[in-house]
Design goal:
There is one protein chain. The protein is built from 10 helices and 9 strands. By secondary structure, the chain is of the alpha/beta class. The protein has one domain: TIM Barrel. Helix 4 runs parallel beside helix 5. The longest helix has 22 residues. The chain is globular and about 45 Å long.
Length: about 240
């Protein structure tokens, strides 16, 4: 069961979700403060277990330490997310995405909602999709009406380069398939200052970017350009819809 304020949270889950782990890991608190000063409203946490994907980083303690001044968007790239989602809810995550490719994805989505209900607060239960996953093969998971769908343009398990065009096309497909439940549509992978225009043109609600901002010569300006590209495209889309 979803919390009655879930729709309000879905409306707030818009903009650039800033990948915190791309910042200086020795000064994450300062990075949070800096991001907030730029006008950032959402922090993205890429949680990796060294099994589902080769890299390893994260844990609920990092999510909790970031505080509650910004929304906390947690992306679980882990093999058995159902065993960990309650810990992330307890740590204060506002959005938790588990992967369709994980064997216990359905259990994990139910676990997010159960843990959120126990805390009496909304937490978006998201479903992440690797590029090679056929949408027809996950119809049973889409039937759970995830609050958020995260489309990856690359597969971090094998180092395949990002395919922006294919991923933006997939966003459009999901928008049609899931029109009734109106999930937050998010895009992750290959988001740079060069690709942000093409990505924003597909009108995702949420765009994840970390290194392209924090590793830029001028991180503040890079974030502003990312934010402006998405805002301008969303405004243009709205003006094209007949009133």
């Amino acid at each position: 069961m979803t919390h009655p304020r879930t729709d309000d949270l879905k409306q707030r889950a818009r903009g650039i979700s800033l990948g915190l782990y791309a910042a200086d890991l020795s000064a994450l608190g300062a990075a949070v403060d800096t991001a907030r000063s730029w006008g950032c409203t959402i922090l993205h946490f890429d949680e990796m277990d060294g099994s589902f994907v080769p890299a390893m980083i994260g844990g609920p303690a990092f999510v909790k330490a970031a505080g509650d001044s910004l929304l906390r968007d947690v992306h679980l790239m882990i093999a058995r997310p159902s065993a960990h989602v309650a810990g992330y809810v307890k740590a204060g995550a506002d959005m938790i995405t588990v992967h369709a490719e994980a064997p216990d994805a359905a259990e994990a989505i139910a676990g997010i909602r159960s843990a959120a209900a126990a805390q009496n607060r909304p937490v978006l239960a998201g479903l992440g999709l690797m590029p090679g996953t056929d949408l027809d093969d996950i119809a049973d998971l889409l039937a759970f009406e995830p609050d958020m769908l995260l489309v990856l343009s690359l597969d971090p398990r094998d180092g395949t380069p990002a395919d922006i065009s294919a991923a933006t096309a997939r966003l459009g497909d999901l928008r049609q398939r899931c029109a009734a439940s109106r999930p937050v549509l998010a895009f992750d992978g290959g988001v740079t200052l060069d690709s942000i225009g093409e990505i924003a043109a597909a009108s995702p609600d949420l765009i994840v970017s970390g290194s392209a901002v924090f590793k830029a010569d001028d991180p503040k300006a890079a974030f502003a350009r990312m934010q402006a590209a998405q805002t301008e495209t969303r405004t243009e889309t709205k003006t094209q819809i007949p009133g």
